[in-house]
Structure formats: structure tokens, C-alpha cells
Amino acid sequence: MIAIIAVLFLVVTMTSPNTGSYFIGRELCQSFSTVRWFCQLFGTAPSSMDMLGRSPFSPKNDMKKIVSHLVQLSWTVAIYFCHLYCAYQTITETMRRHLPFFTQLLYNCELIITTISMTMIFIGCRYHSAQYHIVTDKIVEVLVGFELFGENNMLQKVQQRLNAVIVFATVLFMISVGCDFHTRPTFWKTLISVGSYILPHWITVMAMIQYTYVVSVIHQITKHSNRVLKRQVEIQHTVSEKNVFDTIDFLQQKILLINHLMYDVNKVFGWLFLNTILSVIIVSSVQFLEGYQFSYRKTVSIRDITYFIYTIFWIVLQLGHLMLFLYPNHLVKYEMKKIALNLCELDRPELFEIVEKFSRQFLLHDGQYLACGIVELDLKLLTSIFGALTTYLVLLIQYDTGDYRSQFG
């Protein structure tokens, strides 16, 4: 009896449409589970997110979704207004300190930029909530068929690396909170500082890591595609023309889907990228200026050393903000270039047509992924940012007066 049931199950499974897509979608959701939990906890992903679009319809499920949505919305509003209150208190205190104009402007701009970032994230994740299902379907469409070439642990690799990123980011933020607590005179001042500075940057990380996940999956796919293509180059003269042709045609279609997917995802996150880049420049300028002012102190206490350590960690966190979206893009572009080079090694005359078609695709796509059509998402952007920071820091030092430094001496 058990054997009959097992046979029937296999028959139904093998004859059911989109069975492979369904299981790949389930595996994709499972690999995203940790990131999803953190993002929903801090309001950067809607609680009603349905990546597969297959939730059963029933009054009980609908009521559960409504309650979950209301709870998350209330929690998100509380987080947002908590930040607004803390930012207001911080700006008020900054105005009372009679800092130089440009230094004061820099401190206030930091709070304004981070507030704009939080607003964009909380509104954007709900406005673009339908994109979760759309992007999931597109990733599944790309993944279907790769199981025939082995390497079925691509999603597990992404999950492990993203979990490590979350742990690393959590540790850095906890160290920053600890340093902040040690340098503030009262616990209330610590809460104000955490709500003003640390909280919005954590929210930004929780939003960016969703993009990191998607592009990391794409990187694994392009990396695997490279291995498959390299294998075809090695065996092109020992197997039938049809086998190699079908494989190259398969890869060409998948790379085309990947390019469309990258454009769509970058379009959703574009304005957040620009805001984050501006925020990193402003925040890093503040931290470098404070590090410069630290060198003028005549006496150094334990609290001063702790604050200097906090400054270093905060600069590292700003670099981490950029790496969350620049480094995955760099990896994808690197694999794309390798695919184009490997195509040049296919010299079998029967394959010239498909190779030419594949090559034209790379020529039409210039390999650049842009944020709002303005900034190229590549690691070389760091050079421009460091150059801007150096110039801006020199100007700030010139405007920094001895009166401001003397209060620390």
C-alpha cells in the first residue's frame, strides 16, 4: 500500500506543471528567511510579504495578515517618531554649543540626511511591496534549468554569507552602542544619541541587505554560468554540435534575464543608493573632523579613548554601507566580463551564429549598472568618494577655530 502511494506521488509530482519552479521558489524563500526576519522586525520589509504569491485565501489568514500588518505598522511608526524626537533634541543641543557655522551645518545635515533615508525606506518598502513577488519569480525563472549542470547549493552559499554579514553588522553596531554609552554623561543622553545616529544607520543596513541578497544570488548564477561555459569550451570538439549549441543558447537566455533583473532592482533602490552615498560623505566628514580635533587635546581620558574607538568603528560602518551594494555589483560585472572572454574561445564553425548573438548581447549591454542613471555602481566610486572627503576635510579644518578645540584641551 505504501509503495503504491509512493508511486502515485512520484507520478503526480513529475506530471505537475512548474514543479521545479515551485521547489526552487521554496528554497529561495528559505535562504532569504533570516534576512527577511530581521527586515520585518525593523520595518524595512512589509509583514504581508508573499514572495511566492501562493498564500491560501481564507478569513483566518486574512485576519492574521491584517493584525500582523497593523502591529508592524504601529511599531514602524514608533521607531520613526522616536528618531524624529531624538534628532530634534540633538539639533537643539548642537545649536546651543555655538560651533563654527560649517561644522554645525555638517552635524545638522547628517541628521537630516538620515531622516530622509528612513522616510524613503519605510515608505518605499510598502510602495514597492509587489516587487518582492515579481523579483522572486524572475530569480526562479533564471534558476530553473541550472540543476542539470550540477552546483545546486548556490542559494545555501548566499544564505551563509548573508547571515555572516548580519552577525558582523550586529556586532559592530553593538560595539558602537557600548562605546556611546561609555562616553555619554547620562543614560538618557545615550538613548538620544542612539535614536539620532545609530538607529537610522541600522535601518539603512536592513534595507540594503535585501539588495545585497538579490545581487549575491545573481553573482552565484553568473559564476556558475562561467563554469558551465568554460566546460563547453573544453569539450566543444568532443561532443555533438547540438549539445554545445543548446547549452550556449540556454546561457544566453539566462544572462539576458539577469541583465533585465539587475536593471529592475537597481531602479527600485536607486534613490536610496544616492542618499546613502551622500550620507556616507557627510558622516565620514564629521568623524574625520572629530578625529582631527582629538589630536589637539592636551589631556586624554579613558572616555576620550573610547570615543576615538567609536569614531573608528563608525567610519568602518560607513564603508560597510557602501560595500553592501558596490561589492556585489563589482562581482557580477567581473563574472560577466569572464563570460564574454570565454565566449571568444568557442571556435567551432557551427557555433558562430549563437556565439555572435551572445556577443552582441554583451556589446549592447555596456556592463554599467547605474543608480538613477547618475552614479555607476562600481568599486571605483570609492576613489571619487575618498577624493571628495579629503577636499571637504581640508576645508573643514580651515574653518575649525581654536576656540572650539580649546574646550577639549
From TrEMBL:
> GO BP, one example?
male courtship behavior
In the UniProt record, does the keyword Cell division occur? Answer: no
Q: Which residues form the signal peptide?
A: 1-20
Q: How does the record classify its membrane topology? A: Multi-pass membrane protein
Keyword Signal in the entry? The reply is yes
Q: Which domain of life is it from?
A: Eukaryota
The main location is membrane
* GO CC annotation: axon; dendrite; neuronal cell body; plasma membrane
Which keywords does UniProt give here? Cell membrane, Membrane, Receptor, Signal, Transducer, Transmembrane, Transmembrane helix
Q: Which cellular compartments is it found in? A: Cell membrane
Functional note:
Gustatory receptor which mediates acceptance or avoidance behavior, depending on its substrates.
Question: What family name appears in the similarity comment?
Answer: Belongs to the insect chemoreceptor superfamily. Gustatory receptor (GR) family.
Query: What name has this protein been given in UniProt?
Result: Gustatory receptor
